[in-house]
Amino acid sequence: MCRVLAADIGAGSYRVMEGLYTDGGLAMKELARFRHAPVSRGGHYYWDIEEMKDNLVQVVRDAAKRGERIHSIGFDTFGSDFGLLDSSGALLDSPLAYRDKVSDGIYEAYFNDEKAIYARTGVTYATTGTAHILKGMAEQKFASLKRAVRLLFLPDLLAYLFTGDMVNEYTIATTSRLLDIKRGQWNMALIERLGLPAHIFHPLSAPGTAIGVLRKEISGGIPNLRGTVVTASACHDTASAVSVVPYTRGSSFISSGSWSVKGIVCGSPYTTDTACGYKMSNEGQPGGKFRLIRNITGLWILEECVRAWRAEGKNLRIPELAARAEEGGDFPSMIYTDAPDFKKPGDMPEKIRRYCLRSRQKVPETPEAVMRTVVNGLALEYRRHNEQLEDVTGCPVTYMYIVGGGRHNRLLNQCAADATQCPVVCGHPEAAAAGNILIQLHALGAVPSMDAFPRIAAKDVPEVTYIPGQKEKWEERYGRYLNLAR
Questions:
Q1: Beta bridge partners of 210
Q2: How far apart are CA 217 and CA 162, in angstroms?
Q3: Which of 195, 320, 334, 451 has the most CB atoms around it within 10 Å of its CB?
Q4: What is the 3-class SS of 440-467, one letter each residue?
Q5: How far, in Å, CA of 349 to CA of 374, rounded?
Q6: Backbone angles phi, psi at 119, to 5 degrees
Q7: C-alpha distances in Å from residue 330, one per residue of 218, 373, 415
Q8: Strands 168-169 and 204-205
Q9: How many C-beta neighbours within 10 Å does residue 159 have?
Q10: Helix, strand or coil for residue 281?
Q11: What's the CA gap between 477 and 332, in Å, rounded?
């Protein structure tokens, strides 16, 4: 038996998952889950990294007091966000959140001519990344950037807080928009052109790298933590999640959560003008592979709606609301989830109503109608992206594989099948944690091949398939949707 822990950090919550691996079988169990959101301070939004660390340490110590020895711990997070350290190794400030206003206007000022650099970076700059945040900090003369000697992405930073050792893991670094994607190294020419301090960017480490053993103040007095290492898993949550998706020609994955990260796994990056025009990005995947993806604004919009409804005294949750919307019948309206209207927090139901009114659609007045409106748009964007993938790769998308928390949203998954006319297979709901755990087990030698990851994950949580239908209705809706998504 081999026991490892995965700390999977999302934009709306984070959790610690236990993985017990015995005789080719994986048993996963959630040990703790915490809700969180960026904290407003001084006109900016920050992640409370110290509270996060303290909560995670407590869970690890409590878990170690029961059961088997913990061999390894791994962290995975969403992309882009980072901490800056000074020459003594002290964190200079809490990490800025990627939705902070510091990046406002940076795309238009510095990245709107993406084709000029796409052949080297292979990424789009239409959505916020590390490059935007750093350039915004430089423009606004953040003192922390001036004093920094090291940049650590969130999973690298958590590993440092747990071990005292620093690495920059490759897959999370590929979300920065600052790499030469074909060489797998920092694009120093771009970094210098942006006026960013080159000395904060250090060499990259591969997924599966052993970072170091736990600090004594964490492991002290607990035998099951003696010798426990922190392993750099695939530290980008999507890289971890996609590592448990079976590879089949013609399939597109969706890591469905706050974002719908949608794309394909490929052996080499696509850096053509066509891929650039569709705002696709190439990101790193374990095993020397790549993900050609687009970040589609996903369930975050509904999470924001729930936040607004709760402030009004309505105790709603997305799974139950989806079930009610499914039972309550159809609703014709839709939104383009990547429209500028929905990029920032704040009274999302009202933003959706105004969008529908402006686009001459039926205005959703109930939470169920709002749910339907968002789901309709998201499902139709999946179809549009399938067509774009076919244009770039020459290979049609014939089915889709969904992992992550969105697996539980039956309404979205059936609408996705209907809108795309592709079978939709839903895999592990905790795919990021599952991939994180399996990469640790692979690094420890317990799982000999990454090719076994999808099979092992599917044994832990059985797959569910949705068959497409209602073709004529969704054809009509797609024609209207294309007018919104220009």
A1: 231
A2: 9
A3: 334
A4: HHHHHCCCCCHHHHHHHHHHHCCCEEEC
A5: 10
A6: -60, -25
A7: 52, 10, 11
A8: parallel
A9: 28
A10: strand
A11: 8
Q: How many CB atoms lie within 10 A of CB 473?
A: 13
Q: Which two tokens stand for residue 143?
A: 């003192």
Structure tokens at 66: 């029961």
Domains and CATH numbers, the chain: 2-235 (3.30.420.40), 237-427+463-486 (3.30.420.40)
What is the DSSP-derived secondary structure letter of residue 91? B
The one-letter amino acid code at 3 reads: R
How wide is the angle at C-alpha 176 spanned by C-alphas 175 and 181, nearest 5°? 75
- Catalytic residue (one of 76, 81, 156, 237): 237
CA 99/CA 223 separation, integer angstroms: 41
Residue 237 annotated in active site = yes
The two tokens of residue 357 are: 């009114």
Which residues of 62-203 form beta strands (DSSP E)?
70-77, 82-85, 150-153, 168-169, 179-180, 185-186
DSSP per residue over 350-392, as a string? HHHHHHHHHTT-PPP-SHHHHHHHHHHHHHHHHHHHHHHHHHH
- As given in the structure block, the two tokens for residue 434 are 């599952």
In 3D space, the residue among 401, 400, 415 whose CA is nearest the CA of residue 458 turns out to be 401
Closest CA to 77 of 97, 57, 103: 97
What distance lies between CA 160 and its chain's CA centroid? 21
How do the pLDDT tens digits run along the chain, 486 residues long? Answer: 899 999 999 888 899 999 999 988 999 999 999 999 999 999 999 999 999 999 999 999 999 999 999 999 999 999 999 999 999 999 999 999 998 999 999 999 999 888 889 999 999 998 889 999 999 999 999 999 999 999 999 999 999 999 999 999 999 999 999 999 999 999 999 999 999 999 999 999 999 999 999 999 999 999 999 999 999 999 999 999 999 999 888 999 999 988 899 999 999 999 999 999 999 999 999 999 999 999 899 999 999 999 999 999 999 999 999 999 999 889 999 999 999 999 888 899 999 999 999 999 999 999 999 999 999 999 999 999 999 999 999 999 999 999 998 999 999 999 999 999 999 999 999 999 999 999 999 999 999 999 999 999 999 888 999 999 999 999 999 999 999 997
Distance of CA 186 to CAs 106, 149, 179, 197, 329, Å?
A: 20, 16, 4, 12, 51
